[in-house]
Amino acid sequence: MPRAGLSPTGVVDAALALIDEQGLEALTLSAVAGRTGVATPSLYKHVRNIGELRTLIAQRVMEEMTDLVGTAVMGRGGPEAVIALMRVWRRYAVEHPFRYAAMPPAPLTDPALAEAGGRLLEVVLAVLRGCGLDGGAAVHTARCLRAAVHGFAVLEVAGGFGLSEDLDTSYRLLEKTIVDGLLPAEND
């Protein structure tokens, strides 16, 4: 009989709290069990193993990002929506670096993550459709957009920008570079 009040959602909540505080490498079933006040074997009533827990965490992260990105771009179009997407993506990665690290690089290739990853991708592609991009052009642009935002945010979190110039100014330059370089000109 599962502990009253504990559920797969509660286990994921506890795991995310652990990750937020101690990093992804601290994630073990024993540590999550300690957080939830149960013995480790009791977690198996809620998750099959650490692999399933990692999958549930990745799903939650992608759901959080989809909600945040969707909200940020709502009512916006064109370059304004792209910049809103870029800003919220960076903010999530910087404010939740360990959660962000739990998102696998290729979620669409994992059947357990494809649905959540697909929803996030669909929001990105919808933003790009609003910029006149569709099909292969949208996919290529989405890849470049993801690489740019991910790379900047990961380097920022790791302290990879040690010079004194303002990071937000650098990021605005990245936004301008993406908008000017990847999106079709408005007069084309």
Automatic annotation (TrEMBL):
Residues 28-47 bind DNA. Pfam families: TetR_C_33 (PF13305), TetR_N (PF00440). Keywords: DNA-binding, Transcription, Transcription regulation. This is TetR family transcriptional regulator. Transmembrane segments: none annotated. The keyword Transcription applies. InterPro entries: Homeodomain-like_sf, HTH-type_TetR-like_transc_reg, HTH_TetR, MT1864/Rv1816-like_C, Tet_transcr_reg_TetR-rel_C_sf. It comes from the Bacteria. It comes from Planotetraspora silvatica. The keyword Transmembrane does not apply. GO terms for molecular function: DNA-binding transcription factor activity; transcription cis-regulatory region binding. Residues 5-65 form the HTH tetR-type domain.
